[in-house]
């Protein structure tokens, strides 16, 4: 018998470990098919909320933000690529040169949730940015990605131009900051248990199965 569980996946489009963590979480849920049925909700978190529209060169940004040397940055990039490969996600190394503001992408994700297309759009956004090196702040790119995820591109453009769902996204961002989320990905199960970071599928599966038994 399936135990229904709510999962809030708090993440940012510009976070590579969020892409890895999502792949691992979905692998864990696949293992638990028949035991756990999950309602996954993607919640907004901006790693760089003050990032200007033109973005910033990625190595410059990360080296400054985390105090990395060039060698450390390159080692981290390779480790990320390998971890992605292990979970079935492709990082297009060399294609992604800048970090961008992601607020509009989160607005589209909020809308996609209302349309029942949130997982499809989340995956499409990760692919567009990390695999293909697209700009996830550009409205036309976002509209095209929305269409690939099964959403109406014309409606996506209307939302992007109007500022629709901005209040809702800001409200959710404030909520997660207020409850202590300061890094992503953060996986919150049944609005109580928190798993931090991009964990291996085994860790997610163990936690989910233990929670299912307790319900």
List keywords for this structure.
Glutaredoxin; alpha+beta; 9 helices; 215 residues
Provide structural commentary.
This protein has 215 residues and is α+β, with helices and mostly antiparallel strands. It has one domain (3-214): Glutaredoxin (3-Layer(aba) Sandwich), CATH 3.40.30.10. It is 54% helix and 14% strand. The strands form two sheets. It has a four-stranded mixed β-sheet with strand order 2-1-5-6. A two-stranded antiparallel sheet has the order 3-4. Strand 5 and strand 6 form a beta hairpin. Helix 1 (16-31) packs parallel to helix 3 (70-87). The protein is globular and about 50 Å long. The chain starts with a strand and ends with a helix.
Question: What is the structure about, briefly put?
Answer:
The protein is an alpha+beta fold. It has helices spanning 16-31, 58-66, 70-87, 103-115, 118-131, 139-148, 153-162, 166-178, 201-214; strands at 3-11, 36-44, 56-57, 98-99, 186-189, 193-196. A four-stranded mixed sheet has the order 2-1-5-6. A two-stranded antiparallel sheet has the order 3-4.
- The level-1 CATH class: Alpha Beta
| Structural class designation | alpha+beta
What is the CATH superfamily?
Glutaredoxin
Number of domains: 1
Strand content: 5-15%
Largest sheet: 4 strands, mixed
Uncertain runs are none
Strand order of the largest sheet: 2-1-5-6
Work out the radius of gyration.
17 Å
Q: Would you give the CATH topology?
A: Glutaredoxin
